[in-house]
Amino acid sequence: MPEGYLPIFIFLVCAALFPIVLLVLARFIRPQLPSITKLEAYECGIQAASNSRGRYTVRFYIIAILFVIFDVETIFLFPWAVRYKQLGWFGVAEISVFLAILVVGYIWAYKKGALEWV
Predict the structure, then answer these.
(1) What's phi and psi for 50, nearest 5 deg?
(2) Please, what are the domains in the chain?
(3) What is the torsion angle, in degrees rounded to the nearest 10, for the CA atoms of residue 28, residue 34, residue 39 and residue 45?
(4) CA angle, corner 61, sides to 57 and 62, nearest 5?
(5) Sign of the alpha-carbon torsion through 16, 19, 21, 24
(6) Whole-prediction pTM
(7) CB 52 within 8 A of CB 41
(8) Maximum alpha-carbon separation in the chain
């Protein structure tokens, strides 16, 4: 094995063993007497109103995905804005295509009713 990869291998072994050792150690240290009160969900001292395993509508997930797409859009726009003068018209064309694809996606989502909260 080349000596240049030895620190990487040691790091990977430590990274894999660290959580395993801590979980095993916590298993032996923690108290082993769970009760009904300890197993209940804690909501600031108030009894839980309903089961937390309820289902969400698909619209919730669509809104979440749209939010992630909007964040990714911002991540891609920032470096483009920083290098705007160096990219020239080629950069403007690239970002126009990128934004056009996103706008088409938002229009599609709007027409499907994904942006309505009712």
Answers:
(1) -155, 180
(2) 3-112 (1.20.58.1610)
(3) -100
(4) 105
(5) negative
(6) 0.45
(7) yes
(8) 68
Where residue 45 falls (left for φ over 0; alpha for ψ -120 to 50; beta otherwise) is: left
Amino acid sitting at position 91: G
At 94, the amino acid letter reads E
Angstrom distance (rounded) from CA 83 to CA 116: 37
As a whole number, the mean pLDDT across the chain is 82
**Assigned token pair, 71:** 């964040």
Convert the pLDDT of each residue in 90-103 to its tens digit. 888 988 998 898 88
CA distance 67 to 109: 12
CA distance 59 to 117: 8
Dig out the tokens for 33 from the structure.
């007497």
| Coil, helix or strand at residue 43 | strand
